[in-house]
Amino acid sequence: MMEIDWDKNYQQFVEEVVNNQCIYTLQNNEYFFAECPSEEYDNEWGEPVSVYCFWSNLVQVQACQQDEWADYICVELSLDDFMQDTLLEMDKTEKMVGVAFDEQLCGVEVDPLDLLHDLLIEIAKQNKQHEFEHYQQLLNYCEKWQDITIEQRIVH
Q1: Sign of the Cα pseudo-torsion (22, 63, 115, 44, in order)
Q2: Which of 72, 86, 91, 94 has the fewest CB atoms within 10 Å distance of its CB?
Q3: 99: which strand partners?
Q4: Measured CA distances, 29 to 34, 72, 75, 94 (Å)
Q5: pLDDT (tens digit, 9 = 90+) per residue, 112-135?
Q6: Which residues, 6+ apart, have CB-to-CB distance to 51 below 8 Å?
Q7: Which residues contact 2 (CB under 8 A, 6 or more apart)?
Q8: Cα-Cα-Cα-Cα dihedral of 153, 141, 98, 78, to 10°?
Q9: What is the Cα–Cα distance from 120 to 58, expressed in whole angstroms?
Q10: How many CA atoms lie within 13 A of 96 on its CB side?
């Protein structure tokens, strides 16, 4: 069986999402995102954190439209809305992002603000800052978040 390079898959996801300026997910008829329990992260009660799943292309998302997600519909979100609304809300509600999950629900689990930061870096690499209404505001938010995270690591 071939070893999967998750770091490469994650970077490819970020590049593709920024290049296309959209992201895909599955939603049920109540508009809930496709989710699964984290394999890596637990909440304060020792239970797995919820992971909301997103994909960079239709082929990947459609491959996961089976079993418990068979009745979910594929939804395309603009990258701008995803960064501004979805990722910030996921951070507030302590959800994780599932990136490029495959049919076996294997993929990369990432903190929403880490993904936001990586998306903003890629936007700058592709020189697309002007195409995102909230780019500078989101960049400032990430910089403050990183400073707080670093200070918390130093204190503890």
Answers
A1: positive
A2: 94
A3: 54, 108
A4: 11, 7, 12, 23
A5: 999 999 999 999 999 999 999 889
A6: 35, 36, 37, 38, 95, 96, 97, 98, 109
A7: none
A8: -170
A9: 23
A10: 20
